[in-house]
Amino acid sequence: MWSEIVPGGGHWSWRLSRGTALRFVALEAGANVSVVLYAAHDKLERYNMPDSLKAQHTARYTRGHVLMSDMGRAMASITADSLGWHDPMGALLDSQRMAQRYGEHRFEQHRNAMHRSGKDGLLIEIGKHGLSRRDLIAPVNLFSKVSVDAEGRFDFASSHAHVGDMVELRCDMDLVLALSTAPHPLDPSPTYAPRKVGIVAWRSGPAPADDDCRTFCGENARAHHNTDMLYL
Prior knowledge:
- This protein is an alpha+beta fold and 232 residues long.
- The chain has one domain (2-231).
- It has five helices and twelve strands.
- The protein has helices at residues 49-56, 95-102, 107-110, 118-127, 218-228, and strands at 2-6, 11-16, 20-26, 33-39, 66-68, 74-81, 140-142, 146-148, 154-156, 166-171, 175-180, 197-203.
- Strands 1-12-3-10-6-5 form a six-stranded antiparallel β-sheet.
- A hairpin with a 5-residue loop joins strand 5 and strand 6.
- The protein is globular and about 55 Å long.
């Protein structure tokens, strides 16, 4: 259907139909893509990180996992993945943390149109769809790996994503999807150096009855059934 290259530090959004598939490709090592999802039919329904993780007994996302809404519906499914780990818990880089780590870089002085935090980028994008600061939710950080050590502290894997790594999402309902390619908030790099990402979209159709994501576990099957009922 279309393809895009999103520069590092960039942000974008789309209204996507059920049965649309997106392939995200890391065009540079160390890429991060923070993604948020809202139901196009009623944007009060949106991706719910706690429910999705609890239902699938996981602290990471990979092939077979479903991103569920706060209404118990399947919003999107991960149908292919070269990495095996995408971060659902690391949140967003905000302007305060970015300034503390990388310093101030005003556009008038540095001509840095893409020196922008992930939080600000997503607020700009969801604002295009009538949403505001109170509607910003915890994102999925594609291409990033955050594990938890024995002391309960988050551990960021600095060399996780390589050039050419990819992950595919299928839209299981009509969605508003917004993203930012700003660095992950736990990335320890002292330099602001976000990486560009390629995106390709095509019509895959809705999940069939024997779909791997649908049959991954009973909770996924119920979430897909709940979504299917919207489209009878």
